[in-house]
Amino acid sequence: MQFFRSDINNHFLAQLPADPETANFCRTVTNAAYSTVQPTRTNNPSLIALNTSLAAQLTLNIDDKEALAKLLTGNMVLENTTPYAMNYGGHQFGHWAGQLGDGRAINLLQLDTPKDGSKTLQLKGAGATPYSRRADGLAVLRSSIREYLCSEAMFHLGVPTTRALSLCLTGDSVVRDMFYDGNPQAELGAIVCRVSASFLRFGSFQLPASRGDISLLKQLVDYALQHYFPDIGQPSKESYLALFKQIADETCALMVHWMRVGFVHGVMNTDNMSILSETIDYGPYGWIDNFDLNWTPNTTDAQGKRYCFGAQPEIAQWNLFQLANAIYPLIEDAQPLNDILSNFATKYEQQWRQMMADKLGLEQLDNDSDPALFIALEKIMSASNTDMTIFYRLLATLPYAENQWMSHLADCFYQPLTDEQVAQWHQWLSIYVARLSHNKWSKDEKIERMNRVNPKYVLRNYLAQQAIEQAEKGDYAMLHQLYRVLQKPYDEQPQESELANKRPEWARNKAGCSMLSCSS
Ligand code: AMP
Ligand code: MG
Fold first, then answer.
1. Angle ∠(322,199,320) on CA atoms, nearest 5
2. What per-residue confidence (pLDDT) applies to 285?
3. Which of 40, 99, 218, 388 lies at 20 to 30 Å from 309 by C-alpha?
4. Is residue 136 in contact with ligand 1, taking CB distance under 6 Å?
5. Ligand 1: does its nearest atom lie under 6 Å from the Cβ of 269?
6. 192: domain range?
7. In terms of pTM, does the model score above 0.90?
8. Residue where one domain finishes, among candidates 290, 323, 358
9. For ligand 1, is residue 147 a contact (CB within 6 Å)?
């Protein structure tokens, strides 16, 4: 049976140097961009969820579900394809970690789609690779559901992201000590097939640079230029600089999106930063319920809070600094790289202001007075435990009459407000309403515009956790429901409004809902 109508191109394999060793054991791999590796066979592959619109884009024939489950778990490898794991390094929590690589990701194949260019299909959790170090190369259902749902939720929110084509059970069990507290449990093994034009990371350039392997570095950077940034032109110092500038600009835009929708990645190590500036590697991420710039979902990060919500733009800049260091040998001029890096903060600030103006429904951003309004809002939102998502949706329809403001907003607070907080809200809302009078838009137009940037539905941590608990018992109804609703995150979908409710009290400090470990 023919799975794809599109041609398999295997560009990455053909153009970049392979590890000559083909046996599957853990090792240091030098002078090579990847190692070929066969996915591990699994006991009883079954398909739980399939992204049919993405399948159509990929020209994938989905008629035979059994065969599909085999393909998407690595139990069947197509002729003229060669699965491989990519070699890369990274800074983890601020420290250079050396070679990391795809320890549990295996690229299946790369194909030319009719409308969206080249796409790579990658299995996450298909068994050990030469980069697995001491780990098993497997993934559990819980983390696979989180990746499957969240990457698609991000896509439909308009946030650049890798995508998820499928979610399969392997039929094997996988042992995990979820909280690293000596309580290992057998969990269901699962595999997500994810899709992107490229899975190259900042760390893909960092590793050869760290080893002084300028030849491999250049091959990788030239490959990226040729395939993903064709408008920049032929390889040259100017092109490398333009490439860096574009990655910096797009990473900046990505951070603005994350801050707009309330997404906290949780592990912004440089090996988890895409060269294409897509959200990649969904691990212990979380969504902001009550607005809190200091919140991190990752228990490993609970102390330092390096990757907390509000730090993300700064960390992105720090990561870009590492990327600049990595490609410096190809440019040999620090000044223009530094200029791009120092511009990052200014650019981010400007784009963040525009994003806030959009969220608040302001027709024209006033750079003199609006920033103070935005900062005051953030302060009062955190001080009064305000649900970020619900707040912005309610704000769109704020009544004119001042005495109705607080009852209108009542649903977005996690605790009753003190008199002082009510007074602060009145003060802020008075300034805001006066500010709105500068708009020329009609009231309806303002509401419509606000609702296009302020989602009603996000993948709240407790909802993902409920879907996981049900799926672990074999009930996939909520998984499918969330998947469906999150395809239209800006629509009211009144029959589904339960999924827009704020986090219930039981979920406030529950594992999986507010705290997540890297164990997955
Ligand atoms: P992360 O920060 O979770 O994206 O992962 C950091 C590194 O650990 C990457 O090189 C992963 O491939 C590797 N890794 C994570 N989990 C596993 C696992 N279960 N088996 C093998 N490698 C893993
Ligand atoms: Mg990773």
1. 15
2. 97
3. 99
4. yes
5. yes
6. 7-199
7. yes
8. 358
9. no
- Alpha-carbon span 357 to 4, nearest angstrom: 45
Q: Decide: 220 in ligand 1 pocket, CB within 6 A.
A: no
| Residue 433 CA: distances (Å) to CA of 334, 337, 438, 447, 453 | 47, 43, 9, 14, 19
327 and 380 in a single domain? The answer is no
Domain co-membership, 366 together with 393: yes
Q: Number of H helices and number of E strands within the chain? A: 16, 11
Give the residue, by CA position, lying nearest to ligand 1 atom 14.
103
Pick from 175, 199, 223: which residue ends a domain?
Answer: 199
Measured CA to CA, the distance from residue 203 to residue 433 in angstroms comes to 47
Write out pLDDT tens, residues 360-398.
Answer: 999 999 999 999 999 999 999 999 999 999 999 999 999
> Strand 117-124 vs strand 163-176: parallel, antiparallel, or unpaired?
unpaired
Q: Quick one: 159 and 147 in the same domain? A: yes
Q: What is the mean pLDDT of residues 151-176?
A: 98
271 catalytically annotated: yes
| Ion ligand 2: residues, CB < 5 A | 272, 281
In a domain, 506, yes or no: no
Ligand 1 centroid to residue 102 C-alpha, Å: 7
Tell the residue nearest (CA) to atom 22 of ligand 1. Answer: 103
Of 200, 197, 158, which Cα lies nearest the Cα of 454? 158
CA 148 from chain centre, in angstroms, equals: 11
Distances 260 to 257, 311, 439, 484 between C-alpha atoms, Å: 5, 14, 21, 22
Query: By the 8 A CB rule, do 106 and 84 touch?
Result: yes
The Cα–Cα gap between 382 and 51 comes to 37
Catalytic residue among 102, 172, 271, 281: 271
Three-state DSSP class for residue 460: coil
Domain-located, residue 518: no
